[in-house]
Amino acid sequence: MTEASTPFVDETPCLTPLELSINGQLKVEPEDFVVEEVPAYLPSGVGEHLFLWIQKRDISAEFLTGHIARSLGVRRDDIGVAGLKDRRAVTRQWISVPATAEERIEAINTPAIQVLEAKRHGNKLKTGHLRGNRFELIVRGEPGQLAIAQQIAAAIAEQGVPNYFGDQRFGHDGETLTLGMSLLKGETDPRSIPSPKRKFLLRLALSAAQSSLFNTVLARRLQAGTLHSVQPGDVMQVCASGGLFVVEDVPSEQPRFDARETVITGPIFGPKMKSPLGDVLQLEQEILTATGLTREVFRTHSKLTPGTRRPLLLWPENLTVADHPHGLRLTFTLPSGCYATVVLREFLKENRD
Fold it and tell me: In what residue span(s) does the TRUD domain sit (predicted)?
C-alpha cells in the first residue's frame, strides 16, 4: 500500500495525547521503510502456477506488474498478487505467474527487482491471500526521543490505534474519493471512465467512498469517547473466528471486548453489511445522510460495494521502538488491509515531514 504524505490529522483525530509526539522524516531512503508480506499460505511445490518471492526497491506496484508481464510475455491478468506494496520502500512479497513462464524468470531481475525464490502452486494468488505485513521503519530525527516513543508504544499496547484507512486510499488531493462519491450520487456515469481502466478505477473510487464513511464514523466515536465502550446495538466481531453479532447485553459483552476476545466494528456500507441497532445505527445513518447518500445507492454497484464490517481498533503485533543512528527504529506487524501510517501518526502527530 502506497503511503501518502498528507495526513488527515484534523479529520481523523489520534487516540494518544497530542502532547506525546516525536519529530522526524519518513522514507528519506527506500531502506527506511521495509515491508515484508506475511502470506496466508506457502506454495506447495506442485501445480500450474509459479509463486515468485520478489524484492523491489523504490518501485511502484503498478510498474512491477507491468515489468513482470513484459519480461515473461504474459498478460497482466495472468499475474496474481495478494496485496499492493509501497513504492518508496524495500518490499518483499509473493507474486504468482503461469508456470509456463518458468524458464524466463531470470528476465525479471534488475538492480531494483529481484526474484529471491520460485516455487509452484495449484492456484493463482488472489487479492487478500495474506495474513498481513511486517514493517521495519526508520524515523529520521533528532536524538533523545526514545523515552517519548516508548510512552506512545506503551499507550498503543494498552489502547490500540484507530483502524483508519490511510489517506493514500483517497488518491492525490482526494481525487479518487471525489470520483467515488460522484459515482454513488449518480453525478458521474461509469461509462465516462475510459474502458481500459474502468473496472479498476470503479472499484478503487467506490472503495474510497466506503472508506471515508468508515473513517468518519470512527472519528465520531473517538471524539464521543465510545471507542472502547461497547454500546447496545453495536456489531461486534469475534477475533478468533471473524464472526459478527449484534450486542444485546452490554454487561456481558464489555468484559469480552476488554479481554480482546471481540472488537467493535464500523460500517463498510453495502447491501450485505450487517446493520447495528439503536443509537449506533442512528449515528451511522446520520453520517451517511450528511454526505447526501442513502443505503440504497450501494445496491447500484452491489458487485463492487457488497458491504461488510471493519474493526474500529487495531493492536499492532510485536511493536518495538529503539534508538537508531539516524533517529528511531520502529517494528511491528499489521493484519492485511491495515495501514502503517495510522500507527506512525500516533507517534508523529502533525510533525510528520
Answer: 160-314
Is 86 catalytic? The answer is: yes
Which domain does 167 fall in, by range? 161-314
For residue 196, what pLDDT band results from cuts at 50, 70 and 90? confident
| Range 259-275 burial, b when 16+ CB lie within 10 A, else e | eeebbbbbbbbbeebeb
- Tell me the C-alpha distance between 290 and 271, whole Å: 19
Close Cβ partners of 349 (under 8 Å, ≥ 6 residues apart)? 9, 14, 18, 21
Note whether residue 222 is domain-resident.
yes
Q: Are 141 and 23 in contact (CB under 8 A)?
A: yes
**Residue among 58, 78, 86, 353 flagged as catalytic:** 86
- In a domain, residue 270? The reply is yes
- Look up residue 122 and give its DSSP letter: S
Judge contact between 8 and 216, C-beta under 8 A.
Answer: no
Distance between CA atoms of residues 176 and 79, nearest Å: 24
213 Cβ contact partners less than 8 Å away, ≥ 6 residues apart: 267, 269, 287, 288, 291, 293
Name the helix (H) or strand (E) containing 141: none
* Residues contacting residue 115 through CB under 8 Å, at least 6 positions apart: 52, 53, 54, 105, 106, 108, 109
- Span 22-66, pLDDT tens digits: 999 999 999 999 999 999 999 999 999 999 999 999 999 989 999
pTM listed for this prediction: 0.90
CATH of the domain at 195: 3.30.2350.20
**What rounded mean pLDDT belongs to the chain?**
93
